[in-house]
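Format notes (please read before filing issues)

Several people have asked whether sequences and structure tokens are stored in separate files. They are not. Every record keeps both together, in the order shown below: the sequence lines, then the token lines. Line labels are part of the format and must not be stripped during preprocessing.
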Amino acid sequence: MLRQRLLVAAVGLPLLGLLLAAPEPAFAAAVTLILAAAAFEMARAASPRSSPAYGMSAAAAVALFAAAARALPDFPVLPFAGMAAVTLGLLLHPRGRIAATDAGWWLGATLYVGLGVHLILLRGIEDGQAWCIVLLAATFATDTGAYAVGRLVGRHLLWPAVSPKKTWEGGLGGLIAGAVTFVVATVTLDLGLETGGLALGAMLLPVAAIAGDLLESALKRQM
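Then the structure lines:
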């Protein structure tokens, strides 16, 4: 597992650096392609016996979401996120497979992966390139810190039914690593956050990173 992580980092981080340094149109196009591929992958994983058109239609829908997010000045982010939350809640409902049909998983894949358009929206704001760096750096630090501390001293399982290897100790290590990275990156890039904003971001972003990791694990298990 560690070797795989190091190999992915050795290849992926330089590519990510090039992507973040690219002009905004190239960045948006690349993110759109990545999200479309992810939607295709998730749809096919949820319904492996479906035709290729099933996954391709999910990819096309997410690409349209990305294009709309870039083109519309007031893209409805909160309603979009609300629909995704309701759909994922139904897919993960513990009592029966309420929405776990091909149609339900298609909708879940398009809405869940489609939330990735927040990267395009973030890049489009003032200092958006720097904020993308902060977001990704803090998320990576949270994941790496949780993995390293969990491997070294993890004893108490966090949520074994969803992710059998994650521990409370690892989660705490991830929260600390993510919070420190958020503060250091924000100050280094001179993004002008006051003390209250720094504290809020340092608390919320690592929690969101861990919650997203657990959500992804839960979706994979439900599939």
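For reference, the curators noted about this record: The chain is about 75% helix and 5% strand. The CA atoms of residues 40 and 55 lie 4 Å apart.
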